[in-house]
Fold:
Amino acid sequence: MEIHIVADADAGAKVVADLFERTVRDAGDSGAVLGLATGSSPVPTYTELIRRHRVEGLSFAACRAFLLDEYVGLPAGHEQSYHAFIRENFVSKVDIEDASVISPNGAATDPAAEAAEYDRRISEAGGVDLQILGIGSNGHIAFNEPGSSLASRTRVVGLTRSTIADNARYFDSPADVPVRAISQGLGTILEARRIVLTASGEGKAAAVAQLAEGAISARWPATVLQTHPAVTVVVDEAAASQLELADYYRHSRALESDIPLSTDR
Ligand code: F6R
Structure:
C-alpha cells in the first residue's frame, strides 16, 4: 500500500488524476475500464480530470466505466441517484460515451438479480483497470458496511444508521434518505487491477488508520485493501492524523519520488 499525505484536496486530486491519466493513456484505443465512486471525496479528482480534458486534450472517448453502487428505490433520473451524480460531476463534462458509464439499476424489480448481473457485466468488460474509492467514517468502501464478508460480491445491502445519517445532508427530509443500496462487494472491488482511495478531514482519521495499519477484519471493511498488491491511498493531514507510521510514509514517498511507480507495494 502506497500512502501519500498531501497538503490539501487540490494536491491530492493531482496525485489521483495522474493515476487516471496514465491508465487511460496506457490503454489507448482499446479503452480503459474505469471504476468510479460518488460522494464528496472523488469530486476534486473529477474536477482535475475535466480540466485535463478541456485544457490538455485528455480523452476518455474509448473508456468504459462502472460505478461502485446505487441506492435501491431511486430511479436513474432521480437527482440524488448516483447515476445522476456521476453525470453531473464528471461524465457530462468529458468525452466518455454516456452509454459506456454503467451503474446498478436502483429501480430494478429484482434488485438481487440486478446485482448478480452487474458482476457479470464487469467481468464481460474484462474487469476494472483503475478503481477510485472514498471511505466511510465507519470504514466502509462502496456500501460494504462493517460485518461485510471480505469475499462479498455485488449484492443488496442495508445501510448502517451512521451511513444513513452521513447521507442525510443530500436529501430534503430524513424520510427520503435511502436505507438500502446495490453495492459492489469487497471481493468484486479487489478484482480491480489498481485501486486508489482518497479521504480528507478528521472525520475519516480513525477509518484511515484502520485501513492502513489495523488488523484485517470485517469490523473495518476497508482493511481488506491491505491484501491487494496495487493500492494507493491519498489523504490530507487531518485524515492522516491517526496514522502511527505517518513519518515513515512521508519519508518513503520522498525516497521514491525519482523512481517509477511499481505495481506491487
Ligand atoms: C460512494 C461510496 C461510498 C463513499 C463513502 C465516502 O460511491 O461508495 O463508500 O465513498 O461513503 O463518502 P464521502 O466521499 O462523501 O465522504
User: Anything to note?
Assistant: The chain has eight helices and ten strands.
